[in-house]
Protein 1
Amino acid sequence: MKKGLIFIGFSTLFFSTMEIAIKLAGSQFNPMQLNFLRFLIGSIILSPLAIRHLKGSGFTLDKSKVLYFLFSGLMCVVVSMTFFQMAIVYAKASTVAILFSCNAVFVIPFAHFFLKEKLTKLSLVSLVVSLAGMLFIVNPENLTNVTGITLSLIAAVTFALYGIVGRKGSLKYGFDGVVQSSFSFLFGSMELLVLIWITKIGAVAGWLRSVGLNDFANIPVLQGISWGTLPMLIYLGVFVTGLGFSFYFLAMETTSASTASLVFFIKPALAPVLALLILGESITLNVLAGILLILAGSCVELISDNRQAKLEKQRMIKQPIASKEAHVR
């Protein structure tokens, strides 16, 4: 358990500095370029752990799995993380960090409708409390950054959908989280690289600029990488994306999924504090109230998950006993 808590600590630290590091690197790299580079590096760092998990499993990368990873990579890297990168351009790092952490809240209704998972009363309470917290942060009465808020919420919702896709893949193919993430990051990076090459076509680049999408026109691949920018790129790719997810999955192995999910419960509180210290971003009273509500909602969901896990465990224990009694009769 002690080792698991250490893994959770490192994962939380790396994930909580993600938006800050991207904000600092934003002036040196194109947002889409940075997205591609960090997930490509992240997939490479995750690959040894994924290979270890697949050892002796008889895993083969057939057409069905390739199509699946192409879709999951599209949802994660190309769609969700593109909106995430753009959100950091238009909004404060702390705001994006808090709102994106709410992706776990959106998983609740998606899991009910797409995976037919039971929607408990505690899950509903968690959803309502967390949504109230988001409203405090967004502050509709004084909404000055519509673009940044909208992009952050779209990123959170689409990442929640990626989570549902991942669960479906796990049920169908028997993948665990590290295999799912490693392959999805790799395939998503390759898809993003193809799109980057397309933006270099003269006619395409001209059209994108004509409609005001300058960040998406003629996207560079390696431009901007220098001895000065390499440390930040390594931090984002190796530590935040690669080791951040590695420690998260190792925490899951040594503790439990519910305990490991504390990473995403701590992040909404820690990220704004780090953004204040590193970027000088202020924490207003409504944002503080929103953080507290989101943390409360997350705690309620954690309690709900633990209760469901205990009920499932009791059910599994009772089944063999019932079977034995029926056999005796």
Protein 2
Amino acid sequence: MRKIILLVFSLTISNLFSQQIAIIQYKGGGDWYANPTALPNLIKYTNQNTKTSINSDIQTVKLDDETIYNYPITFITGHGNVFFSDEEVTTLRNYLISGGFLHISDNYGLDSYIRRELKKVFPKLELQEIPKEHPIYHQSFSFPNGLPKIHEHDKKPPQGLGIFHEGRLVLFYDYESDLSDGWEDPEVHNNPKEIREKALKMGSNIIEYAFKH
């Protein structure tokens, strides 16, 4: 209990003095480093269009390193296998219930693996679809229809999924949308400007919501 209290204190202090995002370098062989231009573009857009002042220096953090508590928001993407050890499961769970927030962007091929690992983190909790009325869709930008479709995978509708711990949304998973593809430089995927704009606006909403909650 004392350790969790100290972690909560550490994360609270971190939130006060640092607005910074970290990418989680997970094990398992998946390309955790995918979409390298995505977060820099999203941070620039968010700082320009909302009241954030996020550090453009994006960090990489491993789950066996407790420096994760320095970052109020963390990010996972990729196309392949994800694996969390028992120690990493404990670290991620403590981080999330202590006030941290995780955004996962399904970059195609990630889904079955990340669902398996999340069950290790929260065995008694389920990923659930977040209703369109939820505040995460209504920050500086409004998405009355919920998560926008950015990149086509299997012709399935986009779903914004989440895990709630004691009523608080601790994790947002964009499934069959691939927001992070829409954040990348225009020439990477040749998405139309309006599609990229939707992706950046929704990503900005996620960041804004996470900082407020």
Protein 3
Amino acid sequence: MWAVARRPRWIALLLLALVLAGVFAGLGKWQLERSIANGKPLPETTETRRALDDVTQPGRAAPETIAGQKVTVTGAFVAGDTTILTGRSGGGTYQAVGHLVDAESGASLPVVIGWSDQRRTAEAGGERLTDGQELTVEGRYYPAESPDQDAYTRGEFSAVAPARFVNTWKAFDDRMYIGYVVADGTTAKAADLGTIADRAPTRDIQFDWLNLFYAVEWVVFAGFAVFLWYRFVKDAWEREQEDAREAAEAAGSRGAEDAAEPAPAHR
């Protein structure tokens, strides 16, 4: 069989199979690296409090790596722009979200101030901070939520969605942080609201089994590419062997027929 495999045609096909196997193996390695990377815990730098503008900039989407980052931001809340959300975790039936204008950048920032079980109380608490005075808010910064996450019921909303706030806030100059801050107890107390129960992000390692499955699948494909070449060569060799046997049998049959014919008579 290896005599057949050494022919130029099959050597070229072997090279192609090896190239495909290499590509498949590379894809398997990439999927394996993703499964391991996805299993790494988040960095613990989120517990070091930083100025908001050192963490992100207006208009920049917040990556998951800074979700829950402790931040400090100074600014003034805008009167009449308090938004009430419901159906959220962290405490209370209603949570007040204020429109803070950052004193340094001038950009708008949604701030979840605190909670109450009464809608009026939550709204009054948010407006209590809109006296024009600058406040320093400490809390955790999170990526913006999508309006699609809203549990919309009877005109009520649940997502901290800057994409929706741009249409509801009265005072807005098109500069906004693509994220929001959940304020700590100091701000909630100033608003006479309950403090949102917010804690450090979990750092459990969750191995990505789906990516591992894909990695194994690509390795199988790589092996199959080489195996397919082997089957093609073996099939070609078996066909040649069969052809040779048939040719030998045909030659033997003709010889037997020639031997069975009577010799011509001599006069």
